[in-house]
Amino acid sequence: MGDRGTGKSTTIRAIADLLPEIEIVKDDPFNSDKSDLDLMGNEVREAIQNNESLETELIKIPMVDLPLGATEDRVCGTIDIEKALTEGVKAFEPGLLAKANRGLLYVDEVNLLDDHLVDILLDSAASGWNTVEREGISIRHPARFVLVGSGNPEEGELRPQLLDRFGMHAEIRTVKDPILRVKVVEERTSFDQDPMIWINNYEAKQQELRDRIVSAQQLLPTVKIDYDLRVKISEVCSQLDVDGLRGDIVTNRAAKAHAAYNGRDTVTIEDISKIITLCLRHRLRKDPLESIDSGDKVGKVFKEIFEIED
Fold first, then answer.
1. 248-265 pLDDT, tens per residue?
2. Which positions ≥6 away from 15 have C-beta within 8 Å?
3. What is the distance of C-alpha 194 from the center of its chain?
4. Pairing state of beta strands 137-142 and 146-150?
5. Which residues of 119-137 are buried (b: 16+ CB within 10 A; e: fewer)?
6. Number of H helices, E strands in the chain
């Protein structure tokens, strides 16, 4: 969340190009994984149970945009009632949640999203499944996605239930350094003049980042975090009066991911310091009389409990 015109949408859409490809069952509308039951549709599951051979292919991780004006049918999918009645088959037209399975679901101006769509996202995010019920016919399919949102907080607040579903919250501010501003404008002008040349100039750096992410994914299952550090993380959450335990869980996971990204198999205090504000700032209770920024408050309590001097 942050100021308009700071490249939030551009940055998020660029993430998909950095992520490694995933293997899916060919021509499957749900991007089914042929080995994970929680990530496959009913047809793929039945084919595996019948020992049928399935052809697979590699695709880029799906990046699906959820428009603010989308209808419920467009998001969840629809059932062709006429075909169901005349031919006796469940004809399902997949929606955006089906396309986003195993990928990213991006909502620009997420704080302006209609309440009925927010409810749908909350349900799918909680269960990992999308259920469509029409005229007595029910279809269920996997909908496990990473929810990414952006917006300007001046235009409206995000519902607390949805805000809590976001693991991390980054505040984006307008760059003040004139030299850096000129650099950004020059890069944008260069891209507009010839996008392919600009992309080729940065391809080596892009590939370096991709390789680093893949290495981190492989290292992540082996990363450990000491018990003392876990206790201190929970102590920070407790002192900040964070509701629930999602803050503790997300901070532990993010610290491990940061360590893996930097090629280490043990979490350090530095890893925690880099991510704890991102994980907790949006979970603090709003106090209109509070003069200190929520991010600064998290940082202050973190330093007290981890005994770090300024």
1. 999 999 999 999 999 999
2. 63, 104, 148
3. 31
4. unpaired
5. ebbbebbeeeebebebeee
6. 14, 9
